[in-house]
Every structure is written in structure tokens, then in C-alpha cells.
Specification:
The protein is α+β, with helices and mostly antiparallel strands. 31% of the residues lie in helices and 37% in strands. It is built from five helices and eight strands. The strands form two sheets. A four-stranded mixed beta sheet has the order 1-3-2-4. A hairpin with a 4-residue loop joins strand 2 and strand 3. It is elongated. The N and C termini lie far apart (43 Å).
């Protein structure tokens, strides 16, 4: 058992990062908060994109380990933050609230999701279940000798780079959804960071974060603002 989970167990106290509506929404569908869980890692980011993939994956694995130690069935409202410690070092932190199912069939391993308690309740009532947090990341660089001379008109090279990395990050997100065995994905956040490389270059890194979801039975239509992304042409 991890040190943090051991302290929770010994104290007999339960902590939660959920808001009051979030906790009530989770409890309404039989998900009782059992503790706040965290995963973190400090990564040397010499090669930024692989480092981001490793950082997110390691932090999420450590969050899941704490959830398992608490006997949880899932983790709700997961937030991911990346803090730049130095030019080549970044800290990855994921935080969420572990919950235990009070009724129904318990999953073999804890599910993870960035969705709030009310959104998870809507999802379950609509016949879907969260499976795992899915993340797609991509980045690249491009150079154009004319970049420094164009002040008003669109510059094709940076535009093409941003379009490519966004599309590749989205494709990697969908690959992660496929790999989890889910039926679709709910995107909760997209990020894009760009910066200049000297006078003629530009770099870009894009990320897509969301939740892979699986269909378990038919239910009423969900009333959430998030959209289910179909993985083939037959689902609408």
C-alpha cells in the first residue's frame, strides 16, 4: 500500500476534491467518494513529446495505484497539470477523487475519467460507462525563410504545422480509445503551444485529453454538453 493511501486508511477519514454537486451526482448513481488520489512524476523533457507521453502515463499509473490501495472502483474529475520546472524539466501531476460502487457489478480495475460526478451520472443513466482517461500528444518543427518578412498575411508553413500536430494528437487520442476496447471518446480539453525557433522556425505541441467510454445498455439521451466521438461510420 502506498504511503498516502496507508495514511488515509489509518486515519479513517475520507477526502474528496469533488464539489458539492459533484459529490451528490456521484452518490446518486451509487458511487461513494473514498479519498483524494494523486499521481506525479518529474520528467527530463529533452525530447518534449515522448517526455509528455511518459509523464502523463506514469502519473496516471500512480494515481490508479493509489485508487486500488483504497479499494476504489474508479476515479472521477481527474485534472492534469504540467509545470515547467526548468528549461528541460517538467512536473506532471494528476489529481482526482476515488469512488467505490455501492451497487451493481464492480469493475476488475478502477476506471478513470476527467468527467465530473453529475456528468458521470448522466453517462451511466444513458447506458454508457467511463473506461479510462485517454490522451493524444504530438509535436513538430518547421522552418520558412520568409517567416520574418511576413507581418500581416497568413504564413503557410506555421499554419500547416499547427494543423498537422493537432490532427496527429487527435488521431493518437482515438488510437488510445481503440486500445482500451471502448466504443467512443469524450474530449474534455485540447491544448496547443507554439514558440519561435530563431527568426525562421516555429515549434508546436498539441494535446487532446478525454475519456474513453463503452456502451453497456440503452438508456435515455444524455444531457451533457460533451459529444461522443464515434469510432466508425455506423455510430451516430
Amino acid at each position: 500500500m502506498t504511503g498516502r493511501a496507508g495514511r488515509y486508511t489509518a486515519s479513517g477519514l475520507r477526502t474528496s476534491l469533488l464539489s458539492v454537486p459533484g459529490a451528490v451526482g456521484a452518490e446518486a448513481v451509487g458511487l461513494r467518494p473514498v479519498g483524494e488520489v494523486m499521481g506525479c512524476v518529474v520528467e527530463h523533457a529533452g525530447d518534449l513529446v515522448p517526455a509528455m507521453r511518459r509523464g502523463y502515463a506514469t502519473a496516471l499509473d500512480r494515481l490508479r495505484a493509489e485508487a486500488r490501495d483504497l479499494g476504489a472502483d474508479g476515479v472521477l474529475a481527474i485534472g492534469c497539470t504540467v509545470t515547467r520546472v526548468s528549461r528541460t524539466v517538467r512536473e506532471f501531476v494528476v489529481l482526482g477523487t476515488a469512488v467505490r460502487a455501492e451497487r451493481g457489478k464492480r469493475p476488475q480495475q478502477p476506471f478513470t475519467t476527467g468527467l465530473s460526478g453529475p456528468d458521470v451520472a448522466k453517462l451511466l443513466l444513458a447506458g454508457w460507462v467511463p473506461v479510462t482517461v485517454a490522451i493524444g500528444v504530438d509535436g513538430g518543427t518547421a522552418f520558412d525563410l520568409a517567416v520574418a518578412d511576413r507581418r500581416v498575411e497568413e504564413v503557410a508553413t506555421p499554419t500547416e504545422l499547427v494543423t498537422q500536430v493537432r490532427a496527429a494528437a487527435r488521431a493518437e487520442f482515438l488510437d488510445a480509445v481503440h486500445a482500451s476496447g471502448a466504443d467512443g471518446g469524450l474530449i474534455s480539453a485540447t491544448t496547443l503551444r507554439t514558440w519561435r525557433l530563431g527568426r525562421t522556425g516555429v515549434a508546436a505541441v498539441a494535446s487532446v485529453l478525454g475519456t474513453a467510454v463503452a456502451k453497456v445498455h440503452d438508456g435515455p439521451a444524455p444531457t451533457t454538453a460533451h459529444g461522443v466521438l464515434p469510432l466508425d461510420d455506423t455510430r451516430r
